[in-house]
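hey can u check if this looks right to u? its 114 residues, i copy pasted from the old doc so theres a chance i mangled smth
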Amino acid sequence: QVQLVESGGGLVQTGGSLRLSCATSERTFTDYAVGWFRQVPGKERELVAALTSAGGSTNYADSVKGRFTISRDNAKNTVYLQMNSLKPEDTAVYYCNAWGTDYWGQGTQVTVSS
């Protein structure tokens, strides 16, 4: 079982930035592609960004392209989501996931005020 811990969420004004982190002590985490997802109450969880295990290929939701950047530091078993130019519609709980598994973190709340 891989335990993931997200951090870095908070309250920010429109146009601001946050960097989310997803860390684990499980070294096999480096074998997985990873994804950041977000969810608002009453809606399904949606994919925000994904990254291959080696970090060579990324995929972004159209709504965040050009604003968000996913990256990883395999030496630290940590995945990041740099979020710039934040908008109120980015408000959600953000989760990281080891791709194709049921390994999820507990989520971190991001709130963007207008």
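The radius of gyration is 13 Å.
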